[in-house]
Amino acid sequence: MAYLGNPQNTIAVLQKYNFNFQKKFGQNFLIDTHVLDKIIEKANITKEDFVLEIGPGIGTMTQYLCEEAGEVAAVEIDSNLIPILKDTLSEYSNIEIVHGDILKVDIGALAREKNQGKPIKVVANLPYYITTPIIMGLFESHVPIDSITVMVQKEVAERMQASPGTKDYGALTLAVGYYAKPEIVANVPPNCFMPRPKVGSSVIRLKRHEHPIVQVENEKLMFDLIRASFNQRRKTLVNGLNNAPGIFLGKEKIQECLKELSVSETIRGEALTLEQFARLSNIMKNKM
Prior knowledge:
Elements: H1 7-16, E1 29-30, H2 33-43, E2 50-54, H3 60-68, E3 71-76, H4 82-88, E4 95-99, H5 107-115, E5 120-125, H6 131-140, E6 145-153, H7 154-160, H8 171-179, E7 180-188, E8 193-194, E9 201-208, H9 219-231, H10 237-242, H11 251-260, H12 274-285
Parallel strand pairs: 2-3, 2-5, 3-4, 5-6
Antiparallel strand pairs: 1-8, 6-9, 7-9
Helix pairs in contact: 6-8, 9-12
């Protein structure tokens, strides 16, 4: 069995198929067995699990997943990689290779078919240009998910796990925190990939909350408030919300809402916690 975590085996496969990396797909293949072991360990995969892998590449991590999980579905957008995957994963009977764009695949249907609707585990080495839409798409689709363990750009991982008031804290921090508990489990230098990316990477595990950690009456309104607060980061929250499309309350009403929340009317959005944003959206909803 030729494990692709070994760089020589990766090179052999790429040469055999005369494969050229596609910049538009953000392809960087992992070539470090220690990192692969760490991802599998932190994803906490057992034979009971159905795992969805996004962007399997030539099947480097997929080999590990097939050995640990009950069943694996790997979604790959690049048609040039499909025959390679069929070759590198030919020894495994518990894998389904899906050629498609993860943003268009019906993951709910996959979960129902493969896992009887029970929560699935997602593992991925994500293309950096599309990390946020993929992660938010998974959460917002309300597909039953236990956890998402993904390789992302280091600064994106830091933004997901940031604290209020810090420069990394923003709309992404709050959106991820609403759905899951983030934990950076490994930092990965560029030399662990082929070709080498220009930036450092991190593996982050997002463990889905069993129950909502904040009580919010109108989810969309809360996220509108969050976006408006960080769109004009240096403005006070009052001014940021007053200028925002879709929030038709006027400055005085917004000031009243902040008073009810017991915060200063000169506060900036970056100082509010997720719980405060949830409470603020509930207060504002009742004044609209």
